[in-house]
């Protein structure tokens, strides 16, 4: 009695395994890409959104950012006035007149009690918080 011996070579075996991996990958990605998204239940048409509300519209439009500016203080330096500001709760930094605080938001002037900010051609004023003045003994004066 003669026993049959299988003659397997490494090349065709690796090709077969590669083909199986390719088919498994195609099936997996096809099922993932063709599956409907659950968070797309109530979408508005793209025409209904204003350009500044759509993410692509905000990206490509030349509109100033809506940022929260918090002023810690102002001081006079040897090269002019400097304001200490925090943008959107970020770390405080020193800025001078004429600098851009964010895209489309410029610091126009530094005044004793506030800053003049320009956003999209419109100027606004950001007040510097004033601390209550205390006397030498630490009591606030009464009005």
- Find the count of extended strands (DSSP E, 2+ residues): 7
Coarse structural class: alpha+beta
Uncertain runs are 40-51
Enumerate how many helices there are, as a single number: 2
**Judging from the principal axes of the Cα atoms, what is the shape?**
rod-shaped
Radius of gyration: 32 Å
For the biggest β-sheet, the strand order reads 4-5-6-7
Following the backbone from N to C, one meets helices and strands in this order, namely HHEEEEEEE
Helix percent reads: 10-25%
Beta fraction of the residues?
25-35%
Residue-averaged pLDDT:
76
Task: Name its key features.
three-stranded antiparallel beta sheet; 2 helices; about 140 residues; four-stranded antiparallel beta sheet; 7 strands; single chain; alpha+beta
Structure explained in plain terms:
- The structure is a single chain.
- The chain is an alpha+beta fold and 143 residues long.
- Helices cover 22% and strands 29% of the residues.
- It contains two helices and seven strands.
- The protein has helices spanning 10-34, 55-60, and strands at residues 69-77, 80-87, 93-95, 100-102, 105-111, 114-119, 122-127.
- The strands form two sheets. Strands 4-5-6-7 form a four-stranded antiparallel beta sheet, with no helix packed on it. Strands 1-2-3 form a three-stranded antiparallel beta sheet, with no helix packed on it.
- The longest helix has 25 residues, at 10-34.
- The protein is rod-shaped.
- Mean pLDDT is 76; it is low at 40-51.
């Amino acid at each position: 009695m003669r026993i049959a011996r299988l003659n397997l070579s490494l090349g065709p075996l690796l090709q077969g395994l590669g083909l199986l991996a390719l088919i498994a990958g195609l099936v997996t990605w096809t099922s993932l890409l063709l599956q409907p998204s659950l968070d797309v239940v109530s979408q508005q048409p793209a025409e209904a959104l204003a350009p500044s509300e759509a993410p692509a519209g905000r990206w490509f439009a030349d509109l100033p950012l809506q940022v929260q500016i918090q002023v810690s203080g102002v001081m006079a330096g040897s090269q002019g006035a400097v304001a200490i500001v925090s943008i959107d709760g970020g770390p405080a930094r020193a800025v001078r007149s004429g600098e851009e605080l964010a895209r489309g938001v410029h610091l126009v002037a530094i005044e004793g009690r506030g800053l003049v900010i320009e956003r999209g051609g419109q100027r606004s004023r950001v007040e510097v918080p004033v601390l209550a003045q205390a006397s030498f003994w630490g009591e606030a004066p009464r009005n």
